[in-house]
Specification:
With 510 residues, this protein is mostly beta strands. The protein has helices spanning 52-65, 235-248; strands at residues 13-17, 20-24, 30-34, 40-44, 48-51, 72-74, 81-91, 94-103, 106-112, 121-123, 126-130, 133-137, 144-149, 155-159, 163-166, 196-200, 203-207, 213-217, 223-228, 231-234, 255-259, 264-270, 274-282, 296-300, 303-307, 321-327, 333-341, 351-357, 366-373, 379-391, 399-411, 420-428, 431-441, 450-458, 472-481, 490-506. It is elongated and about 100 Å long.
């Protein structure tokens, strides 16, 4: 195959393109399916000025290719070297090489069928070489505009929208390469200045003729999304991005992303099946002795990512079962503390904490939950505690109900006559759902240990629907707050003991 030799092709754009089917419910919980195992490369070589000699070369090449009909080779300057490859099969009379992309303990292999044979070095079975990519033009017409003419006869032309697409080659006895559940690595971009994004909600609004509107939250919590904006990246940064994108199969597989606003690591996925890079600058010392010492700069044309959830392997079979979990106070971890604002500005210093007590429970050790709130009209606080227990649905047909039970007891606080509302809490990544078990538990009527429980709590009525492979986490919440007519600072203390959760999994009758 002929090589379209454009030299060090400044201004050319290279993009890797996957295809992913994504089905999501109103809450944003997704099921994703990859249609491509390997991406297709697209190269945009248009949008440039050329002189008459360069134009003649391009036109002759385009005519030989007969537009989109015949294939040829092109150099992908974002990815054209192998340093630790292996020999592949002979395809169409040419020796192929297998390149492996690895990151975060995962890897994927790529078959290279346009290897530059004179660059192959075999070091005990470890292959290094350079390679091109077989492509075809995307157009049957050559886009050309006459732009300028000089007295000495020099002419300038502009070329627009001239691009080419990679041609796949059959890989005999190709290995089965299943995508991982997630990649335990990040993009390696450090302090990511210029990235925009953060929390995002989804709200449906119906405007009424009277001017009022009816609003409904589509998400029970916020989702986070970012755009890694246009920036220059060097070869090492670009190589890591390309490797991650190939391993993730575009939008399919999630990976780690550090959120500098919350200073925490989030599990995200790419929100696009295309990774685009434009060749901007190159170190002319590339032509020195060691080709690996060159440095180039590429422009990243924006890369959106969004929070997602890992999906675990499942059987796909609905199996009736009953699972019962019991926990003591020391088993819980505080997941979050949220300010309750009913229109007055919220609490000035909202706090939620649990003190562990060794003796005096029902029986033995127990916990005392303290809620601090107030300072503004209608203010309060909610504390969310996460248990160590979880359940992974195996089938979307599962009918799940919950039996919830805990013992409570009132302890001294600054507001003697009000206890704490109790909620069952279910986390289904990335959202949280809750169902009230009891209001004002630990009030004056609960001076001794008292059981608070509910049975047959339907997860579907809470808005939680089983997504095969998406983990359900369980815990509880305690809430207290003022009415809009009250603003004093207060705290309440209510004990917790003998927490128990039963998960009842049913299946539809056949």
């Amino acid at each position: 195959m002929a090589l379209l030799d454009l030299g060090i092709n400044y201004g050319a754009s290279y993009s890797l393109n996957f295809s992913t089917d994504i089905i999501s419910n109103r809450e944003g919980i997704e099921q994703r399916r990859a249609l491509y195992q390997q991406p297709l490369l697209k190269v945009a070589i248009g949008n440039r000025m050329v002189n008459k000699g360069e134009l003649d070369y391009l036109l002759a090449f385009f005519e030989a290719a007969q537009g989109r009909l015949n294939e040829f080779e092109i150099r992908d300057w974002t990815d054209y070297q192998v340093t630790d490859g292996s020999l592949g099969p002979v395809i169409e009379g040419r020796q192929s090489v297998i390149k492996t992309y690895s990151l975060g303990g995962e890897s994927i292999q790529r078959l290279l069928t346009a290897v530059v044979e004179e660059t192959i070095v075999d070091d005990g079975g470890v292959i290094s070489c350079e390679f091109n990519v077989p492509v075809r033009f995307d157009q049957d017409a050559f886009p050309l505009t006459f732009e300028a003419y000089s007295p000495d006869g020099e002419r300038l032309f502009s070329i627009q929208e001239l691009s080419c697409t990679e041609i796949r080659k059959a890989w005999p006895d190709a290995p089965l390469q299943l995508p991982p559940a997630s990649i335990d690595a990040d993009l390696g971009i450090g302090k990511d200045y210029g990235t925009t994004g953060g929390q995002a909600y989804s709200t449906s609004i119906m405007a009424l003729p009277s001017g009022w509107d009816d609003r409904q939250a589509n998400y029970s919590g916020s989702k986070s999304q970012w755009n890694i904006g246009a920036k220059l990246v060097n070869v090492a940064e670009m190589t890591r991005m390309i490797t991650m994108f190939r391993l993730c199969r575009g939008q399919l597989v999630p990976f780690n992303f550090y959120d500098w606003q919350t200073e925490s690591t989030k599990l995200v996925r790419f929100d696009s099946d295309s990774l685009g890079l434009q060749f901007e600058a190159h170190d002319e010392n590339y032509y020195g002795e060691n080709i690996g010492d060159r440095e180039s700069l590429f422009a990243l044309n924006g890369l959106p990512v969004k929070v997602t959830c890992p999906v675990q392997p499942t059987t796909g079979v609905c199996t009736p079962q009953t699972l019962t979990y019991s926990a003591t106070a020391k088993d819980f971890s505080l997941a979050s503390v949220e300010n309750l604002d009913q229109g007055g500005g919220g609490s000035l210093n909202p706090m939620a904490s649990m003190q562990l007590v060794n003796d005096g429970g029902n029986p033995g050790e127990y916990g005392i939950i303290r809620l601090d709130f107030g300072g503004n009209l209608g203010s309060g606080v909610t504390g969310y505690w996460l248990s160590p227990f979880s359940y992974v649905p195996q089938s979307e047909d599962e009918i799940i109900t919950i039996d919830y039970s805990e013992d409570v007891k009132r302890f001294e606080g600054s507001w003697e006559h009000v206890g704490q509302s109790i909620f069952l809490v279910v986390w289904q990544c990335p959202f949280r759902y809750q169902h009230q078990i009891a209001g004002f538990a630990g009030n004056v009527g609960d001076a001794e240990w008292t059981n608070k429980s509910q049975s047959n709590i339907s997860l579907s009525e809470m808005g939680v629907y089983p997504i095969p492979g998406v983990e359900l986490r369980f815990g509880f919440a305690r809430l207290n707050g003022h009415e809009l007519s009250q603003s004093f600072i207060a705290y309440t203390q209510v004990g917790i003991d003998n927490w128990e959760l039963t998960i009842n999994v049913g299946c539809p009758e056949v």
